[in-house]
Amino acid sequence: MEELLCNLSPEQREAVTTTEGPVLVVAGAGSGKTRVLTHRIAYLIARGVPPSRILAITFTNKAAREMKERSIALVGDAAREVWISTFHSFAARILRMGGEAIGLPQNFTILDTDDVRSLFRAILEELNLDPKREDPRRYAAEVSRLKNEGTSPEDYLKRFDPTRPWERLLAQIYLRYEERKAQTGSLDFDDLLLRAVELLEHEAGSRLATRFRYIHVDEYQDTNPMQYRLLHALTREHANLFVVGDADQSIYAWRGADPRIFLSFVEDFPGAKVITLERNYRSTQKILDAANALIRHNPGRPPKELWTENEGKEPVRVLFAGNQNEEAEAVVKRIDALTREGYALGDIAVLYRTNGQSRVVEEALLSAGIPYRIVGGLRFYERKEIKDVLAYLRLIANPVDDLSFLRVVNEPRRGIGESTLARLRDFADSMGSSLFHAACRADEADIPRSKAKVLIGFCTLLRELGARSRELPLARFVDEVLEVTGYRAALLALPEPERSSRLENVQEFLNMATSFQALHPEADLPAFLAEVALLTDVDTFEEAEDRVTLLTLHAAKGLEFPVVFILGLEEGLLPHHLSVEEGNVDEERRLLYVGMTRAKERLFLTYAEYRSQYGSPMRPSRPSRFLEEIPSELLVVEDVRSPWAREILRRHRFSTAVADERETAGVAGLPSFGRFGSSREERLGKTGGKAGPEDEPWQPGDRLVHAIFGEGTVVQVRERGDEIELVVAFPHPLGVRTLLPRYAPIIRR
Ligand code: ATP
Ligand code: MG
């Protein structure tokens, strides 16, 4: 017991040992909130609380896994029995245990975001609407909103405004969507929480609701109203609710999280003990000073300053690049230098606001031969072969899952085409049955004999597999599915390199199943499928490998790295223009605060003078207001622009136009760009720019340098009206571009 508590500060110890009643730990980043939560679990077990009566909710499955491992390390194997999971995994688990009482099948399928989108697309098609013109995502988002505010399709049908065509359509779509899910025994992510609340508030769920004596929630500031109701249902008989959070790190409002829930904890749970922690154990003082200075600009927050005993030598650095390619190169150069100083690649993270920003960095890392991993992006489970295998497993576990049926009935090819499927659909509708059950009786339908035979054969095969799923260990079973369905044979028949890469992914999936089974020996197929469906981006990344980690600021929550780069500190990007338009700059500031406080020893912020987004041409950008908010003595700015970028801006008249634009913008938004831009004289082209080869006419074969594209060769000179047009060849992948030398940021070599 002493050992458990001796590594904690007095405040942390108090939080750990206050076991009864509501407790709120409110504290800044890196102050040990998550650590306190883990120690508290261990402490409860050491005090004799049965582990199965302890529940902890984390934000990702990865965090759950880590917390479990740490508590096992602290108090031994007993900690295995503790329930540690995300809200969604928790909901799925109790619904599998008791969902039948509220009319759910035990083997329900969980629809991920992708499945939900396909379902909406299918419904739009049924209603003869074009899913290309009517964005399924928009309907998915609206339906999700309605559900979370507690409006059922029936409620909405009564209340929508019939003079508005869009609302009428939404009502129809919502109803169908819910019907479809009911028919196919599926639940989306919203349903998991909604139905779990329903179960816990129901008579039949009361045993489950009172099972947990000690409840813990990490990252409480990002709780949404439905999760809050779930916590209420769990604390009916006692109020042993222990939550930790930091209002400054609330970054999920866009996903329905409600920061008021955090702020009103003390009123909601009377008698709550509030513990604050101010010492940071993660970062150097220099990093904290910069992060504190930034977050101080958010209005309406109680003053709270983090301090640490770790002074630190290295200042926070701002790398000021000419454009996004130079930004990426500067980052890669730094990474290289850091590894020579002794940092491992796994110590380094590159954070960015939008997924699209990773590509340039990836390319730079690739060409420097530095291994990296991306958290997010195309997820493992979104790959075709993995989705196919999963669909087989889902259909076996839940034969009424039509979506999965459609995915695999002709995968590998069995000669079942659109027209057979349309007839099957009619037959199923006429009986009110699922596609699978209709297929089993295909000989009674208006379907050609040969096709009917194939369908019936498919049914028999899956039924046999259903029986096998209860006999074989999980990984062996998955292997058998691949074999007898002919799926593996079909992969083997593919041309290279597809064949190898798909087979490797399928092998990786088998490894996953094996390790899942090792961790949960009692788990059955539905449990495995639920686990897979609820994995988040962050969950699929393992720390052990020596690679640089690339991830969004949102995904970085709760993590820490010795070295952190944050890219693109520019107006429009960070803060993101959508948030600026919605007047939500404070949330962007919190997002940057989260990013900065991930760093333990070194922190780099970058800014590029030009950037192209979403494939648009390069545009001049302005430094983020956040850079201006951090006092200059806390930042060291390094100009990493290439000599060419500098030279071009200095000499070309294009820079004058840019400078003018900036000057105007500066009046509106920013006090000065002095620290980050070149001097005004320089920008206005007053300091140099001798006339010279610029004035000679262009000729094919001339070499030039473009501020963004780099070196190129003129292949053709054309006249168009008064203008001269240059056709210039740039190296692959840029290719041939047409430029107007009067405006383009180029100089002759
Ligand atoms: P965040 O707000 O970012 O989630 P947090 O408050 O949850 O941060 P932790 O991740 O728990 O902070 O702790 C940050 C780091 O400080 C971890 O590496 C942790 O092990 C370390 N730490 C926390 N408390 C102590 C302590 N008393 N002694 C030594 N190290 C500590
Ligand atoms: Mg934490």
From TrEMBL:
<dbReference type="InterPro" id="IPR027417">
    <property type="entry name" value="P-loop_NTPase"/>
</dbReference>
<dbReference type="GO" id="GO:0043138">
    <property type="term" value="F:3'-5' DNA helicase activity"/>
</dbReference>
<feature type="binding site">
    <location>
        <begin position="27"/>
        <end position="34"/>
    </location>
    <ligand>
        <name>ATP</name>
    </ligand>
</feature>
<protein>
    <recommendedName>
        <fullName>DNA 3'-5' helicase</fullName>
        <ecNumber>5.6.2.4</ecNumber>
    </recommendedName>
</protein>
<dbReference type="InterPro" id="IPR000212">
    <property type="entry name" value="DNA_helicase_UvrD/REP"/>
</dbReference>
<dbReference type="GO" id="GO:0033202">
    <property type="term" value="C:DNA helicase complex"/>
</dbReference>
<keyword id="KW-0238">DNA-binding</keyword>
<dbReference type="GO" id="GO:0000725">
    <property type="term" value="P:recombinational repair"/>
</dbReference>
<dbReference type="GO" id="GO:0005829">
    <property type="term" value="C:cytosol"/>
</dbReference>
<dbReference type="Pfam" id="PF00580">
    <property type="entry name" value="UvrD-helicase"/>
</dbReference>
<dbReference type="GO" id="GO:0005524">
    <property type="term" value="F:ATP binding"/>
</dbReference>
<dbReference type="InterPro" id="IPR014016">
    <property type="entry name" value="UvrD-like_ATP-bd"/>
</dbReference>
<dbReference type="Pfam" id="PF13361">
    <property type="entry name" value="UvrD_C"/>
</dbReference>
<feature type="domain" description="UvrD-like helicase ATP-binding">
    <location>
        <begin position="6"/>
        <end position="284"/>
    </location>
</feature>
<comment type="similarity">
    <text>Belongs to the helicase family. UvrD subfamily.</text>
</comment>
<dbReference type="GO" id="GO:0003677">
    <property type="term" value="F:DNA binding"/>
</dbReference>
<keyword id="KW-0347">Helicase</keyword>
<dbReference type="InterPro" id="IPR013986">
    <property type="entry name" value="DExx_box_DNA_helicase_dom_sf"/>
</dbReference>
<keyword id="KW-0413">Isomerase</keyword>
<dbReference type="InterPro" id="IPR014017">
    <property type="entry name" value="DNA_helicase_UvrD-like_C"/>
</dbReference>
<dbReference type="GO" id="GO:0016887">
    <property type="term" value="F:ATP hydrolysis activity"/>
</dbReference>
<keyword id="KW-0067">ATP-binding</keyword>
<feature type="domain" description="UvrD-like helicase C-terminal">
    <location>
        <begin position="285"/>
        <end position="558"/>
    </location>
</feature>
<feature type="region of interest" description="Disordered">
    <location>
        <begin position="678"/>
        <end position="700"/>
    </location>
</feature>
<keyword id="KW-0547">Nucleotide-binding</keyword>
<keyword id="KW-0378">Hydrolase</keyword>
<dbReference type="Pfam" id="PF21196">
    <property type="entry name" value="PcrA_UvrD_tudor"/>
</dbReference>
